[in-house]
Amino acid sequence: PGIKLVGPLAFGPEDILFVGDNAGAAIFAIDVGDADAPHEELTVNIDNLDTSLAAFLGCSRDDVLIRDMTVHPSSQNVYLSVMRGSGESAVPVLIKVETGGTISDVSLENVPFSQTLIEDAADEDDLRLVTREKLRTVTVTDMAYVDGLLLVAGTSNEEFSSTLRRIPFPFNGNVQTNSIEIFHVSHGQYETAAPIRTFVPYENNTALLASYTCTPVVHFSLNDLKSGTQLKGRTVAELGAHNRPLDIVSYVEAGEEYLLISN
């Protein structure tokens, strides 16, 4: 796979790893071949991960940028998308952190993979900015595999650029695309440009809970959703201005479902 930039990660069926590549406006599906036996109980505790990664990659700590993290559903090894270096000389690396803390890179030589291009991604010379980032660089911001579809949040080259894509996997079907509108509480206005930064499937995969920069939490219903229409979100919480969500997970405790959001 000719990955130019590693970004969002997600695991799908048969432990396939999806990798978002905003520079190449593509999503790769890779068989990482992680056949370790599953662990019934797992604790991972690594101090100074950035320093350990820098030592492994042979660079300074300032040259290590972790873009995303996900956990293998069977082995429970931790996978990281990492950029080594900066600018045009930056090198994309997939890292595996085993349950015992051992760090290794994921070889992409002779691995089974497929890819799909994001046809409506903004051009590299599109000068529109989203929170000081070029529109192309937020083509894919987060992903999740649900019921045969890869849900992909990000942006497009349209006037209303905030976008949700539903991509059938295997990559052999028609992509369904919806522009997104939300009410941004901190900004006091409706917005169609700011992309979802992170999301989780919700309500038996019939809805999404998503978070944005500055930082509304928004509910989207996926019921009766038709391609090409505008998807309107319902703002359900506000975490305050000058925050940027990094990740969002859901968990159940005492029969109640909760969200955990890191900003």
In terms of per-residue confidence, which ranges show pLDDT below 50 for 5 or more consecutive residues?
none
Strand content: over 45%
Question: With helices defined by DSSP (H or I, 4 residues minimum), what is the helix count?
Answer: 1
Largest sheet: 6 strands, mixed
What's the overall average pLDDT, rounded?
92
Report the order of strands and helices.
Answer: EEEHEEEEEEEEEEEEEEEEEEE
The best one-word shape is globular
Helix content: under 10%
Distance between the termini: 32 Å
Radius of gyration: 18 Å
Number of strands: 22
Structural class by SSE content: mainly beta
Give the SSE layout:
Layout: E1 9-11, E2 16-21, E3 26-31, H1 49-57, E4 64-71, E5 78-84, E6 91-97, E7 103-105, E8 113-117, E9 129-130, E10 133-134, E11 140-146, E12 149-155, E13 162-168, E14 176-184, E15 189-191, E16 198-202, E17 207-211, E18 216-221, E19 230-232, E20 234-238, E21 247-253, E22 256-262
Parallel strand pairs: 14-19
Antiparallel strand pairs: 1-2, 2-3, 3-8, 4-5, 5-6, 6-7, 9-10, 11-12, 12-13, 13-14, 14-15, 16-17, 17-18, 18-20, 21-22
